[in-house]
What we know:
It is globular, with a radius of gyration of 18 Å. It contains nine helices and nine strands. α1 (about 1-20) packs across α2, α4 (about 95-110) packs parallel to α5 and α5 crosses α7. By secondary structure, the protein is α/β, with parallel strands linked by helices.
Amino acid sequence: xxxxxxxxxxxxxxxxxxxxxxxxxxxxxxxxxxxxxxxxxxxxxxxxxxxxxxxxxxxxxxxxxxxxxxxxxxxxxxxxxxxxxxxxxxxxxxxxxxxxxxxxxxxxxxxxxxxxxxxxxxxxxxxxxxxxxxxxxxxxxxxxxxxxxxxxxxxxxxxxxxxxxxxxxxxxxxxxxxxxxxxxxxxxxxxxxxxxxxxxxxxxxxxxxxxxxxxxxxxxxxxxxxxxxxxxxxxxxx
Length: 238
């Protein structure tokens, strides 16, 4: 219930007025039945803008940290994500990927739309990074189409670390559904799920026009942070 209040009464109308999103390819979202919407992830705003413009309800697998934050802000964030129907996924530990896949298949099993960011985390520099294979495992196992999606301009309005987004127009593009029925029964074959994942990422790349990096985003971000000089040293250099 609260999901539809947010979508049609509170948040949805406000986002449409403020950001005036250009929507392309909305006809590629099936009117019914299970499907995966796989998109790039540039900004915290992505969580709200895409659901606001879709006619159907979409459930995202959200990182568990959004549900466990401390203080009033943490409780409000957790309340919002739960009320919006988002599912917490613990990304730590060796079984994290399997837990996410189980949750995602549960959504698809009910004939619903599942939203997922194959990069696994927000891009820290606006580039598109290598996709994780969970999206392929779910697509093959559930035998559902994957609709690639590109958020364009959301990095500029709210890059990582910026709390209040800039008011600027964004574009949301949906590509034609990708059919992976030819891979039926191959969800445990590494070569197959890698090929499916790469095809999805290539479709997203074609829609977004981003620079592509053949490396996982989390690894690239960690390497960049490790190579950066300490904050105190950076201040002294100024």
